[in-house]
Amino acid sequence: MDSIRRFLAHAVRLEAESARRFDELSDHMRSCGNDEVADVFAKFADFSRLHLKDAMARAGFRYITDLPAGGYDWPDGESPETAAWWGVDALMDTDAALDLALQSERQGLDFYRGVAAASNDPRVVAMAEEFAEEEAGHVAQLEAMVDEDKSTQRSAYLGNKS
To answer: Running DSSP on this structure, what letter comes out for residue 69?
Structure first.
């Protein structure tokens, strides 16, 4: 990807799709009465909206409708940060929600790193690296949340064993 405008159009679309999907997942879990998992998904929708706002400002897009309708170069034909619906049901627990969010953020990180590695435009490389750094922060935060959640579960389990 050797155009800063094309890169930013991809970044805007990626973050818009991520926010939309996490909002959908949050609404679904809330309608199932699983507020704890709904809150996890809502938090990541908010993160995506912050990235979306930044990318739109940098690109000069005022409205999401200003983006081109097609022509995106997604690794698997779909925006990388679009969280999958498989495995999402009323019984989904916080661990599974965190794992799904982590997978989504890792895919976004991989996308931005891939763009940085493949581009010949120094501006695209610099911005893709910056976006990758932000995604790496989200991945690290999620990994810490997963580790904390598992540690809490282990402690509760061991506490019940005595």
So the answer is: S
Q: Under a CB-based contact definition with an 8 Å cutoff, are residues 116 and 129 in contact?
A: yes
pLDDT tens digits, 80-105: 776 665 556 666 677 777 787 888 88
Rounded (10°) angle between helices 94-118 and 122-161: 160
Spatial contact of 9 and 67, defined as CB atoms under 8 Å apart: yes
Q: Tell me the two tokens of residue 145.
A: 């949340």
Q: How far is CA 101 from CA 5, 36, 64, 112, 120, in A?
A: 27, 14, 23, 17, 31
CA dist., res. 114 & res. 65, Å (int):
26
pTM greater than the 0.90 cutoff = no
